């Protein structure tokens, strides 16, 4: 616009300009769930959880097992060991922080209502209760034992499978076939042990999933077996049976 044109537009000391009509394009709102873009993990633990599933929140409120249909593709080749990795991974699954997980375990273990179940795990449920309370203040990764795995399953209504890819062995902590199975990878070195969540599967897929793994053995139980029993077990684990008892135990101990 030229200066002289501007003066022509002056009327009662005001300037009136002809402006082209402009219509702002408005996109219709998409009907989205309120929680679609909210990180529940951030709200609960100031950490980020990708694509939180609202169904998970409902399950937790109703004390039902969470549903997490994803695989963890973490690279374990150059793994950096941390303390309480199992609690950290569980925290991301059940959407509560690590201390709350411990509190829930303590609450269950210390309740008289759990006595009957504890008795199925140990002949001395009182000692088991003490042991669990003691290790909950330590780095759980290095002290956890079978009974506590089962109690974790009981508290959160899940089944747990722990696999060691290096040794090709597994543990299956199953309390109810209708619950989902949460698969954790066990990573070890000479001093440390960590657990990383891999994926969750259903009962129909468990057999195929574990097809290439051997059931983990317990050294204390191996030592109690007779030679004939050790040889029979060695056949299943494809170990030379023409050996003395201690040699059989030594070979089988690779699966512990």
What is the structure about, briefly put?
By secondary structure, the chain is an alpha/beta fold. It has helices at residues 3-8, 40-45, 54-61, 85-94, 98-110, 115-121, 125-135, 140-143, 146-156, 203-209, 219-222, 227-236, 245-252; strands at residues 10-11, 14-15, 159-164, 169-173, 181-188, 193-201, 214-215.
Please explain how this structure is put together.
The structure is a single chain. The protein contains 13 helices and seven strands. The N and C termini lie far apart (87 Å). It has helices at residues 3-8, 40-45, 54-61, 85-94, 98-110, 115-121, 125-135, 140-143, 146-156, 203-209, 219-222, 227-236, 245-252, and strands spanning 10-11, 14-15, 159-164, 169-173, 181-188, 193-201, 214-215. The chain folds into two domains: 71-216, Cathepsin B, Chain A, CATH 3.90.70; 217-256, no CATH class. By secondary structure, the chain is an alpha/beta fold. Helix 6 packs across helix 7 (125-135) and helix 12 (227-236) packs parallel to helix 13.
What's the helix-strand series? HEEHHHHHHHHEEEEHEHHH
Summing up helix and strand content along with how strands pair, one would put the structural category as alpha/beta
Going across the major beta sheet, what is the strand order? 6-5-3-4-7
Total individual domains: 2
